[in-house]
Amino acid sequence: MARTRTRKYVPLPAAALALTLAATACTGGGGGGDADTLTVWIMQGTNPDESGFFDEANAAFTEETGIEVDVEFVPWDGAQEKISTAIAGGTTPDVIELGNTFVPGFADSGALHDLSGYGVDTSLYVPGLMDMGAVNEGVHGVPWYASIRSMVYRTDVFEEHDLEVPETWDELRETALAIEEAEPDMIALPVPGDAQYSVMPWIWGGGAEIAVQGADGTWVSEVDTPEARAGIEFFTGLALEDDTSTTGAVNWNEIKIMESFSEGDAAMALLGSANPKAIVENNPELEGALGSFPIPGRESGTYTPSFAGGSLLSVFEGTGNEEAAWSYVEHLTSEENMMLWAEQTGFFPGLLSGVDTFTASADPVLEAYAIQLNEASKGVPTAPAWSQVEAEQVLVGMQQAILNGTSVEEATTKAADDIERILNGG
Amino acid sequence: MGTPVGQAVDGHGARQHRRAPTGPPGRGRRASALGLRRRRALLPWVLLAPALAVIAALLLFPLARIVWLSFREYRLRNLVSGESEFIGLANYVSLFTDSYLWRIALPNTVVFAAVAVVATVVLGTLVALLLSRLRPVTRVVVVSCVMVAWAMPAVSGTYVWLWIFDVDDGIVAQALMRLGVIGPEGYNWFADRLFFYAIVTLNVVHGGFPFVAVTVLAGLLTVPRELHEAALIDGAGAWKRFWHVTFPVLRPVFAVVTILSTIWDFKVFAQVYLMPGGGVGGSEMLNLGVWTYVSSFGQRDYGTGSAIAVVLTLLLLGVTAIYLRALFREDELR
After folding, report:
1. ipTM over 0.90 threshold
2. pLDDT (tens digit, 9 = 90+) per residue, B118-132?
3. Less Cβ around it within 10 Å: N or C end of chain A?
4. CATH code of domain B92-333
């Protein structure tokens, strides 16, 4: 006699598992490279429209080598996570634009192809960028462009209210207060929470370093020193005490600052050198109404150092297309293409010889940027683990905490502890 | 191609026909019955095989891999090289001794899920009751409207809520400023854990209630009208009729929507991650799902990230098991 196979109950764990699986179902993705096409990731966010440049540069490259180039634009926001995900899934592109602070971390992990075998002359490039690519006695990226942040202001607003370009912190504060009073609907100077490069200058300007390496190799963070606290307190005080910013700016990143400037809301802002062009692109009414000045120093006659960022072009290891990828990097970093890129975006070229040429011919709006780059710029600590500090958003967390009401003492102490833990390999 | 197959089938059929009358009747019947039984036993598995293969490839393998990862020291370097070190329970020990789990991530996950599930099921049921009383044409119109909320992708939906609650220009902020509830300087609700999760709850309930409404409506339409009429004649009010007639009949439906909502609300990701502060490591807004992602892909500590994911899965299994047990116990009682 056949036994009935019907069950009166479903086993509990099996049912639970099945339900969980059904509800958490997800799909996988795939991808990869082939020899005839190179995949290139270019960062996107605060730059002006780049597609025109790539159409031309890629057509020239394809004509020369017969290799097609597929450029994909990746937003800066969350870029590190996307790159890690691509490494995990084996879907990395062949060539990637990496922010200079990203390079040491990815190079140290072995993800990037060593380009030193191709005869890269490292002395030709802007040293602050080149240093970040020269990790573990190799060359893991070629400087493409330098970007620096400086103060941009609305010349029409300044003229209307007889304001002078500020030259000290106190003057900056007074100017912001004056704008706040004269133009109550404008944001005199946004103090963003989600933009770490807007915080760093004030740490440096106060007279501290983010972290210094001792003789024994241990990193010590100076973010919790009185000097750094004075700087951070000045900057956040503009929002918290003087109300020259806006409450929502706690959640703003650099893109949002640029947008508020484009919309005509902000009167002054700390912006990258590619931003003025993008702002005019967004809002042509602001043509001719933009000016720039280097971040004033605490005392008159000095400047507050700004973060010198920029990008390198790197080649991923293990794609099978490393050589073709290198020839594309060589193509983009040729003097001709680099100058063209600089002209079209407002970034400074990564080639030393190009910086002066570019400065001489550039838009007068960028004058202050050249001063800032040459006289008052700084990089982040050159530890491979630094990108981890950025990935964990230590400085963003600190800045947001302060703007949300945590005391500067408490927030800076925590940030300094976190930075030391990460840089010292905790 | 069609012809040879047809021939083969014909030939086979013909042979069977020929053999049936000549062979010993008893043996032939037993043999074919045995074959049939074996085939019957095999058939479900054959039919399940493609689904099982897909589940194994897409779910079981990643699941096993995550468990495996959770016992290893696995960082970016290991990701690139593929080599890693077994470290036993170290990831779990550091996870369970991390006050962040107990103070922030676990309460955020559990309390939020509890509130969101109750709100989703209650709202969904109320909408279903409303729908069941509407005329067919009106019902189609209302169901279509409800479906729009359901069809909205989580990411777009979240951005809409972000605009609504924008700190400076959002409609809520503007309205409250006009009413004088908050000052012209505004208020950053994204920095307040309670407000933050209130917005997440609104978002999640808004996206989740249509499923409950439609499912419960389907159930409501099966409740025999006579039961309601009998209860009405006995003098039961709407409240009593719901609890004593509708609810008992629909208990399995409620069990299913509650379990599914629970699972969805426990593993909410986009609705938290996309909010300001929702993706920042160390902020007090993360839930277990986002924490998994931030640990793995933000902090590139894939071992710890996997350990959190395993804990979240076990938590879900536990909650689901309790629900199912409750459901089957009710069934036994009846």
Report:
1. no
2. 999 999 999 999 998
3. N
4. 1.10.3720.10
